[in-house]
C-alpha cells in the first residue's frame, strides 16, 4: 500500500513538473511574440522609408533631367516593391522620353493593372503606342485619359499629336483647341496648332497661332522662332528678322553654350536673317550617342524630306535627328552606318545645296542645307575619307568622270521610277 501511494505521489510530481515546464514555455513564447510584434513594424517602416527615399531621389533626378539615374532609382524601388504603381508610371514616362517605347508600354500597363483609372498613365501609354506606330490603340488610350481627367491639357495635346501622325490635321486642331480651353496659357497647344495649320496650308491660321504662343509665353525662344519662320513663309522679311533676332537673344539667356554653337555654325554670312529665324526652331533636335560612339560634329539648318533637324557625323555613322516637335508629325530619323555608304554627291546652287548619300542597298538619302552648312559638311566628310575631294583644275585636259561619285543629286525618295530616271543622267 505504501508503494502504491509512493508511485501515485511520483506521478503527481511528474505532472506538476511538466506543468511548470509548459507554463515556462508558454511564457517564453509569449514574450518572444511580443518582441516580434514590436520589431515587425520597425522592419516594415524601414522598408517603406527606403522606398520613399528612392522615389524622392528619382523625382529629383527627373527634375534635373538625369533620366538614367532616375531610371536606376525606380528600378530599385520596383525590386523592393513590384506593386508600386507610381514607380511603374514614372519609369514608363522616362523610358518613353528616351525612345524605349516597348519598355514604356510594359510599365504603363503594369501601372494601370494596379490603378486602372490613372489618367496620366493612359496618356503616357498612348504616347508610347504612337511611338510604335500603333496609332489606333494610342488614340483609344488618350481618349480614355481625357475622359478620366478632362482638365488635363497634356492629354489633349498628346491626342492632337497622334491625330497629326494619322494625317487628321483638322482633328488635331480640335484637340489643341480643347487643350487651350482647359489652359489658355498652354504654349505647346498654340505651337501645335501652328504646325497643324502649316500642314493645311493655312498661313493666316499659322501666324495667328504663333502670335498667340508669343503672347502667352513672351520669354519662349521656341515661340519667337516659330513666329519668325511663319513670317518668313508669308513673305514678311522684316517681321521674320525681328522675331528671329528676339528668339536668339532669348536663347542666349537660356543656354549660352548651345547658342554659341549655333552662332558659329549659322551666322557670319549672307544667311544671317535665316539663321536668326531658324536657330531656335532647330534647337529641339537632341542626339544621344551610343555607348563608345564619338560625335565628330553636328550641323543645324538641315532638311530631310522637308522636315528640319540636325545632321550629325560620328565615328561610326551619319545620323539625321528631326526637330523634336516635328517628330510628332511623322518626321523621319535616319541612321546610316559608314560601311553601308557607297557614294556621296553634292549639288550647290545660289541659295543652298544638297548632300545625296547612296547606300549599298541602292537607297538614296537627300539632305538639303544652306551653303554655309554645306561647305563645312563637305570638308568634314572629305577629312573622314567618306567622299573624294574636289578635283584640281587642269588645262586643257577634258574632265574625266569620277567612278567614286554618283550623280544622285536630283533623286527624290518618292517613287523608284524617279530614282531610276535620275541615275540615267550620269
Would you kindly provide a written description of the structure presented here, covering whatever features stand out?
The chain is of the alpha+beta class and 426 residues long. The chain has helices at residues 2-63, 67-80, 85-97, 101-114, 119-131, 135-148, 153-165, 169-182, 187-199, 203-216, 221-234, 237-254, 256-266, 272-282, 324-327, 371-383, 416-423, and strands spanning 295-304, 307-314, 317-322, 334-337, 341-348, 353-359, 364-369. A four-stranded antiparallel beta sheet has the order 1-2-3-4, with helices on both faces. The protein has a three-stranded antiparallel beta sheet with strand order 5-6-7. α5 packs parallel to α7 and α11 (221-234) packs antiparallel against α12 (237-254). The termini are far apart.
